Amino acid sequence: MGDTGQRAIFITGGGSGIGQATARLFGARGWRVGLADVNAAGLAETAAMLPPGMATTYVMDVRDRDAWVTSLDTFTAVTGGRLDVLFNNAGIATGGPLAEASFDDIDRTIAINLMGVLNGARIGYAYLARTPGSYLLNTASASAIYGCSGLVPYSMTKFAVRAMTEGLDGEWYGAGIKVRDIVPGFIDTPLLKAPAGGSNQSIRETVTAAGLELTAVEEVAEAAWAAVHGDKVHTYVGKTAHRMAFAARWMPGKLRTMMRRGMAAPTD
Asked: Which terminus of the chain has a smaller tally of CB atoms within 10 A, N or C?
């Protein structure tokens, strides 16, 4: 058993990007960190960035419910039963016109970005309920603010994550579990090197050519920290996310026009 006074966070998608940056931040601030990912090399890289003895790693696929149980059982055995935050962060970036998308890609996007998050919530509840004042934190996206052309399956899953966050924050209130999400815009990660849907340009080139800002993963990690130390259900991260939220409320016509231009790319 670990030190029961040490706070603990379990992070999916902990092998890179937002998950890695969040692990570094929480670990540096004294939290015990559980890192889960399908990428064993990425997990080892992240663990090496944390103070010695602060992290344990779990190679798992968020679609695998048995793996969820095994990993959370093992992690909470190390933490003395504590799970202060479950960060449902794992996801994949996909883009391109829906009419040209393969059903395999559509199914994989929904299975990881939606069902993987739902698995974490459903299975994680029992562990979070044992720790007073615990949080479920989900990674949504600016594409959950207004449906994005060229990103329809991805955007659908992120809208669902946003809806799940709101619904469970009410449903779990009596259990003392708070549910939050972060809503990042375009994040500066290796995912941006991938080709934009239907284009020879990378996502990074497409985004910057459109004059949209990139947000550092360190800023997203700080937002994750703020989300589990505050009372906002949705925490917007980066100028693009804030501008989209403002436009969705006050200038929806402008967003409609932007989507008709076909400028869209994965946002986290």
From this structure: N
